Fold each of these.
Amino acid sequence: MSALYVVFVVGGAEYALPASVVLQLEPFQGATPVPGTPDYVAGIVQVRGHVIPVIDLSRLFGGEALTPTFDTRIVVTERGARRVGLLVEKSREVLRVEPASLQATPGVIEENSRGFVEGLAQMGARTLMLISLSKVIGEDELNVESPKHLEPGSSGVPELPGAVAAGVARNDGGARPEH
Amino acid sequence: MAALVQNTEETLGRLVSTSNESAAQREQTRSALEAIAAALQQAAAAVQSLAADQTTVGAAAQTLQKGGEETSAGLRELAASIGSVRTDTAALVGSAESLTELFGRTSRSAKSMNSNAEELAAASEELQATISSSSSVLAEMAQRGTSAAATVEEVAATIEEMSKGIGGLAKDADTISGKMGEVAGAAAALSESLGATARGTTEMSASVDSVTAAVEESSRSVKTLAESAKAIETASAETAGTLAEIAASVEEVAATSAKNANTIDGNAASIEQLARSSQRVVQSIREINALAETSASASRQLEESARRIATRGEDARNLGERAGVSAKEGGATVAKSIRGLGTMRAAIESSATVMQDMGKRAEQIGDIVQTINLIADRTNLLSLNASIEAARAGEHGRGFAVVAEEIRILADRAATASSDVAKIIRELQNAARDATASTAGNLRIADDGVRLANDAELALSSIVDGVQQLGQAVREISGAASEQVTAAAALGQATAKVREHSHQIATAADEQAQATQVMVRGASEMRTMARETTQATAEQSQALRNAVRMNKQLASGVEQIARSAAEQSAATADMARLAVQMRNATKLNALAIQEQTKNVEKLSVSAQEVLRYTERTVAGLSEQANGAREVAKAMDAARKEAALTARSIAEQNHGSAQMAKAAKEVAKLAAQVSSSSTAQRTDMGEAAQLTEKLQLFTRQTARALSEQTQAVDSLAEESSRQVTALKSVAISSQQQATASGQLVNALAQVKVRLDELMKVNLEQSKSSGALLEELRASAQQLSHLRQLQTDQKHAVAELVEPGFGQG
């Protein structure tokens, strides 16, 4: 049975994630940088009342920091209780992918892509790289339990790991330095 | 100028096409909006109409291109014909140069005529001088002739007197002759008586007494004889005195004759000199005649050349007037073009304003399109999220997922369309900027066109001025030439007069020469006569000298007679004394008587000799008288000749005066010829200057023509550029068609969210309509301008044609 994939672009290449792990897409209007975080963490943003961290995939994949444009999107993913926004250049479509078009990553690439790409999807002339979400947002790297004392959406306080959430300003605040 | 018009046309065409493009785009947008408002079908229809419009634009562009190519070909023809005009102008320059050369030749011939006239004047002056010198010689001669006549008359009077004297002398001689006859008779009687004595001597023996008586008687007779001899001696002395007188007179005559002969010789020499000077006069007159002939032919040549100049000038004037008319027409056309260019300039300015308006509107549209793009983006996001949500909802969300997918597709299309629109808007803005820039260029070009047209008008008016000046110059040349013709005719008449006068002078000189010849003949005759007279006088003198000698001999004879008579008387006395002794010596006596008889016979012989001598003297005297008469006659003839000479000299003097007058007239005429020749030379100089002006004007025309050629060349270049631009218009039209196809897709999708665009679009449409109207007005002006340009081209062709006809 075919599955729906969210397609996005990072560093000019097309990647895909199953729609099942994507909560939503958000326009990027800047993130609040968080001190002490790795350089691929763009900062934190508010999405539907939740504060989530945003990872710059381009940076994470070894490229330059993304320059925000009109098309820049945040792909909000959910893995278990963990919600992480992926900062991508562009995301304008969702595709149905037949299982037949899925194939494994060639060994050389898998070895050299630090495990971020876990498969390929051939869509006609297009080739989509399937992202390994666990590798991207990992459980080890962001092993923070969501604080349960806050009801989601009740007060606009993000469901962020405490370490990250500490000292985080409201995303809808006026005076916030641009990225 | 035409090049600029073409350029402007080209640019305007580009502008029109650009504005068409923008109008079409506007139309497209509007129709798309309407289609979005109403239905996609309407959009399709609008796009179809747009496509049709674009096809029309393409066709129009091709037609325009063809027209541009034709214009280019026409311009090339124009350039070629202008080149031929330039060649013709060069030919005109050549003919003007040859005209100048002709002027130079005419000037040289005028100069030579002038020198001829001066020579004629000099010859006339020489003639005058010769005539005055000959006149003075004649006057002198006349004086001498008069004095000679007086001398001759004197001589004649003297000779007449002398003749009278000689007549008296002849009478005296006749008387002497008669007396001598008597003497001879007495001698004869004596002889007879002596014979009787002899006979008586024989009787003496008979009677001595009677002898004595007889002796006494004889002594008385002897005494008578002595007396007679004395008388003869006296007469002889008288005769000798008269003869000496005659001889002196004759000597005087001879001297006078010699003097006379000298004078006559002098006269003859003078007359010969006169004859020589007459010959010189005749020769001078012949030279004058030849000079007059030369000046007549020179004046004829001059007249002919002046006529030729007048004809050439008339031709040049006609050509110049035709060129002037064409140039005036060209000027009028250029003025029309200037007006058209001014109108076009205003239209371009208003279209520039419209363009700026349109640019502003395009910016507004860009903002709106930005908004649309934002909305489309958001729609895409929302649809994606809806899809994700639907996927997460599983089977329940399946229908929703389909809707969400469709929304996403629509949103994507809207985004694409809006970005296309944004691109179009950017192009439109670029086009508007280009249009503004090119409008500024157009304005500059139009200004240049106006300036160039003004220059052309100025050049044409200067051509007209030049042609008018040329006409005036040619008229002046014609006037000068006709003046020259008149002057040449006057010169011819004057020369004819000179010739006539020369002929008169020649005739007079001939007459004079003839008269001089007659005079020379008369003089030589007179000289001969004088010589004869001298000779005769000399002979006469000789004869007189002989007569004197004879007379002396006669005187001595008579003395001898007287002496013998005295001796006889003494002897008779002795006889008487010795009569006594006579008886004794009768025989001695007889002998003595015989001797006496012999002596008497001798006496008789002497007497006869005296008679003979006297007769001869008488004959010589009568000869002398005859000679004197001849001398008188000759003197009369000489007087007559002298009078004749005086008369002929007077005639000659008269002729000389006439000759002097004629020479003066010749000199005057020569001076007139000289002055008219100088005037002619001045006219020649003016004509040469005018010809130089003509050359200058022609060269200016040639320069203007080459400038025109250059302008036409640049026009041709502009035309070919126009063709290229039109090609690019066609290409951009095709591109526009493609864009239209894209726009169809775009417009089909933007439907719902572009309602607000409607209002703006309507405004835009209105401004577009205004722009189109302006552009149509511009196009109309342009076509008007093109009409004017065609007119101008025709005018240029007409302008070219006279040059062409000339060549």
Amino acid sequence: MLRTLLLAASALTLLAVPAAAQNKVKIGFIATMSGPAGAIGKDMEDGFRLGIEHAGGKLGGLEPEVIIGDDQLKPEVGVQLVDKMLNRDKVDMVAGIVFSNVMMAAYKPIVDSKTFLVSTNAGPSPIAGAQCSPYYFSTSWQNDQAHEAMGKYMQDKGYKKAYLMAPNYQAGKDALEGVKRYFKGQVVGEVYTTVNQPDYSAEIAQAAASGADALYVFYPGGMGINFVKQYAQAGLKSKLPLHSAFTVDTTTLPAQGDAALGLLGTAFWTDGLDNPVNKKFVDDFVKKHNRVPSTYAAQSYDGALLINAALTQTKGNLADKDALRAAFKKADFKSVRGNFRFNTNQHPIQNFYLFEVVKRPDGKLGTGFKATVFTDHADAYAKDCPMK
Amino acid sequence: MTLSLFLTQALNGVQFGVMLFLMAAGLTLVFGIMNLVNLAHGSLYMMGAYFLAALVPVTGNFFVAAVLAVAASLALGIVVELIALRTLYRRDHLDQVLCTFGLILFFNEIVRMIWGATALFVQPPPILSGFVQLLPGVIYPVYRLTIMGVGLAVAIFLYWLNGHTRLGMLIRAGASNRAMVGALGVNITLLYTLVFGLGAALAGLAGVMAGPILSVQSGMGDSILILTFVVIVIGGIGSIRGALVASILVGVVDTVGRVFLPLVLGAVFSPATSSKVGPAIASMSIYILMAAILFFRPQGLFPAHR
């Protein structure tokens, strides 16, 4: 009797699980929400939520439940969050992740459990290359690409001598490698500063005296705010043109102010990019949050659209992973960046644009489109990825 | 390396040192005189910068906003002392570290709740945003010269306050024997509150001066706090004169290390090696300096008389 009851009960639970899972999709969204880089995580979350809203509040007909996790920019916290989301919350997929070091730690447990991971920012080279996974999709870029684009622009512009600066950590070294992959002129200085160094007056004086005709820096977040203010205050804007990636964007522009006006950067997207999807995204984001969205918000917005497109195609079926993967790979959605398709390593093949910091009609600083540097640019690591 | 570039870099080093002095002066006062390890000094610095960023748009005038921001830092320091730190003077240093570390977390979060996670914008007032030619080829931003001027004025003020006023005498007396000064009828509790307020005001002033050149954001005080501790340990805890000398020493050594070490190494090793080793050694240079000074003078350069 007892046995029969137990059997019946377990049969009922088996029935109950897929029934409950069918109309709901749980997404774990991991990002850095606190500390100095917290603005980035906030922008990503806001972009992601706006993407869901524009998809009609549902993802492929399923009710989305977004579980936010703050990794505090600590890889070990990221791994704990992954563990909690996979085992306790039983999420169907994970999205987000700002920093490459957090991504490298969180990556394996997620893809090993055959849970889909949509990176909406970090793009470390190992994941694009030898360690690629069928469960990983990126709606951002591989880390080197924006730097490569600026190197290409500086080369095309005919600069002869460049002075390069970056923080002394892996992403900084990758950045300058990316620039040098396309800039073939002379590098008269290659300087690595301490991470989170507040004052750059000494390095700026060296750069000014180096005889370089172009300056390239990679200073994300607060470092970029410090650097750009000090660069402008040193009176170099008219003497040594500044080129950068991830250094001036709409998360830092309000604090950089007019010091950043006219500076050039490269990215896969700018808020001034002229296409209907982007216009709707930017206008609604500004209306809702009273600030201009950043690349982080744009990538995450696309992440939500990608998930929606994939789930729409599988008609909300989360169980058939092969079908879902095939649907992800199609990337059947209109991206804010224009053309979007996946390479064999499931990173985007996309354009890279040159932007200039401009005052928008509403008086806020934004990134205006200036030129297309790369068309359908693939990353350099896809050839190391065994997936076909 | 031309002479003018060398002079510019020397000036950069001194200027960075003066910036550190503004921070270190308040910290060494509180640490040396009240025997309180105040990790939240960096938070008071951050609050100074935030007060400035918030007050500039309201008042429309940088200088008025700066004065108000320093006053607000003073008031905040007094409130923090009354609420949180007063009971800690007789406790272990570890208890003080715990409490003031908690204050760091508290302040970092409260600025995010009030002003948001994005960094705030402050720029130097127009009158101070130009350049001056000090020597042929040595052109320097006026604002950075102003920082040096303010730092020097603070040094003179503290020297006068500490050595030539009745308040300074009481502060020094309280430092050597708190109980005895109390027994002589001096309100030592009030005195300590004032000293802590003064330290907070100095931290706030440092934040105000840093606002236009640095990013005003949550956690901005944390990185400079470590350097400030290095400075007061090298200078001798509690000594204003030590703080001044040590700040300039640290500022110059740090700048020289960053600029000249890669050049020197580049002459000896291959460019690949020097670009790898240079930044690593440069970032260690001030700690090597500290280790060397403490080896020969464990009390620091100018130990305060206790």
